[in-house]
């Protein structure tokens, strides 16, 4: 099977996501000074991966190279990149000597993020099985942008920009904005799926 350029970019993003997640996995706040380069590298990898997501989608549409392989792999990579980041940012490597998270994230927040992805994936699969298209909408795209922004913001708020006032003050604002859009996108997708769900319930 010949892999086109957009899918090649998606595959490259998959390997960037793995490297990014490994950096977060092995970071230890107790050795922050020696390991701060890991957060720098993770931030750069995350930004490049996020931008490549925009690029491969643009190329696939522009060159009419949308494939089933890309439709499956692209959202999968997006989810392991972003959801994986939120999960790992709750890990022991990001806790202070008292066991408190220094990321500003709480476990219940990540539960909402993961639950949203599971629900929307289920809705998309169900809707498309009924022959109804399930394209990303404005709410979903805005959610992705704010989640990506939040991940990058949190990483640098723990890393090299920890003492920058506007980074520290802005972190809870961007986290709560991200959560609000995450919940709003669930409502929007439920609304978009109402016809498919109603038709099935009448069978």
Radius of gyration: 18 Å
Strand content: under 5%
Number of helices: 7
Q: How many domains? A: 1
Based on the structure given, which CATH architecture is correct? Up-down Bundle
Taking the sheet with the most strands, its summary is: none
**What is the distance, rounded to the nearest whole angstrom, between the alpha carbons of the first and last residues?**
40 Å
By CATH, the topology is Four Helix Bundle (Hemerythrin (Met), subunit A)
CATH class: Mainly Alpha
Number of strands: 0
Average pLDDT, rounded to a whole number, is 86
Describe this structure in words.
With 203 residues, the chain is mainly alpha-helical. The protein has one domain: CDP-alcohol phosphotransferase transmembrane (TM) domain (Four Helix Bundle (Hemerythrin (Met), subunit A)), CATH 1.20.120.1760. The chain has seven helices and no strands. It has helices spanning 5-26, 32-62, 68-88, 107-129, 138-158, 165-192, 194-202. Helix 1 packs parallel to helix 3 (68-88) and helix 3 (68-88) runs antiparallel to helix 4. The radius of gyration is 18 Å and the shape is globular. The model has no long low-confidence stretch (mean pLDDT 86).
